[in-house]
Every structure is written in structure tokens, then in C-alpha cells.
Amino acid sequence: MQYLTLTIPEKAVTIGSRIGLADTFFSRLFGLLGKSSLEDGAGLLIRPSSGVHTFWMRFAIDVVALDKELRVLKTWHRLSPWRVTSVSLKTHSVLELAPGQIRRHNIEPGDQLLLS
């Protein structure tokens, strides 16, 4: 899997340097299934995606909905296993992070993210 770095340039914040990209049918289908946790600095960017579920997951995750330009639309803190986010046609991709990362990095709707 390809790993990328994700930042919020306006806040001089690095969200993670081990952000996996799930952009194929199978990588989106399986996502984080089989993992027992996510480390700080790690995550999964799922694109395209208009929402996610946590069925069969073993741990909670922070979830960030993004538009086509990687601008934050909505956040979900510590989404527990067996939950579903809302689905939106404005959402183009979804970022899954370790629980607590949204608060730690002060990720808010309107923030512009940058992938490198």
C-alpha cells in the first residue's frame, strides 16, 4: 500500500505521515478490517467514498469527511464498532484515524488538508 503525509498547512499541523490510500475496489472494501488498532500518525484515506461503517472492526476510529479538494466537511469522534456515518453526496473521500486524533490536531470543518 502507498503511504502519504497529510497536513493542515494553515495550522502548521501534520496529521500523519503513514496515511494509506484505499483507492481500489478491494482496498476500499477491506479498509481497516483485520487491524487491531491504528497508531498515531497512521490512517486510511478512502476515495471515492461518501461514508463509512465500522462493522466487524475491533476498535473505535476518528472519521473525517472530505470534499473533492480535501476540505473537511464533517468529523466523527471515536466512532465505535458497528456504527455507520451519515452519507453525503458532497463527501468525496473519508479519512480514518486513530481515536483522539481529531481533537489532538484540532481538525475542524472548513480546514483545508494537503496530501504529499
Brief summary of the model shown:
With 116 residues, the chain is mainly β. Helix content is 9%, strand content 36%.
What does this structure look like?
The radius of gyration is 13 Å and the shape is globular. The chain is mainly beta and 116 residues long. The mean pLDDT is 93. The protein has one domain: Jelly Rolls (Sandwich), CATH 2.60.120.1140. The chain has a seven-stranded mixed β-sheet with strand order 5-4-6-3-2-1-7. It has helices at 25-30, 101-104; strands at 3-8, 13-22, 42-46, 61-66, 72-79, 93-97, 114-115.
Keywords:
about 120 residues, Jelly Rolls, 7-stranded mixed beta sheet, 7 strands
Give the secondary structure arrangement, pairings included.
Blueprint: E1 3-8, E2 13-22, H1 25-30, E3 42-46, E4 61-66, E5 72-79, E6 93-97, H2 101-104, E7 114-115
Parallel strand pairs: 2-3
Antiparallel strand pairs: 1-2, 1-7, 3-6, 4-5, 4-6
CATH superfamily: Protein of unknown function DUF192
Terminus-to-terminus distance = 15 Å
Structural class: mainly beta
Order of helices and strands: EEHEEEEHE
Helix content: under 10%
**Strands, count:** 7
Rg? 13 Å
What is the mean predicted local confidence, pLDDT?
93
Number of helical runs? 2
Largest sheet: 7 strands, mixed
Strand content: 35-45%
Number of domains: 1
- The backbone outline, from C-alpha atoms, is globular
**Which topology does CATH recognise?**
Jelly Rolls
